[in-house]
Amino acid sequence: MKIRLLASLLPLVLGVALAHAQDAQTAPAAPAADAASKPKAPKTALAKDMGKINKANRALGKQISDATKNDSSLELLATIRDAAVAASNETPAFAADQAEADRPKFIADYQAKMKEFLGAVDKVIADLKAGDNATAAVDAKKLGMEERQGHKAFRKPEKDN
Question: What's the predicted TM-score (pTM) here?
Fold first, then answer.
């Protein structure tokens, strides 16, 4: 008796499942999230330069220990260095949020941090040119740390929504 009941319900269950699957395929897409629907502010020159640094630094971290990729690593470091030089001549947007009296010191501190970062980049370049990939890998990790410290001090904090 149970088998007959199950056998008679099976077409009904399959029919409902099939109808539900067809509805799901033809249903309109859910509205985009608020973040996607808001227009993004155009990137500043500093943000573009920092993006280049970040992208090259991530790639560098993956290959710095491999001596066979030293030429590529040196190219990445040249990209990092060029972008850092350009960024050091720019002013962080967060400077506008500083008190007017504190703004010159904020900008001077930013420029000093960028010079420190450039010194760290030059150290990694020297390590690679000397063929010391182990030291270059350690110094490249310091680059990432320098980058994070700089962002913490000079990047405008993101608001939590």
Answer: 0.71
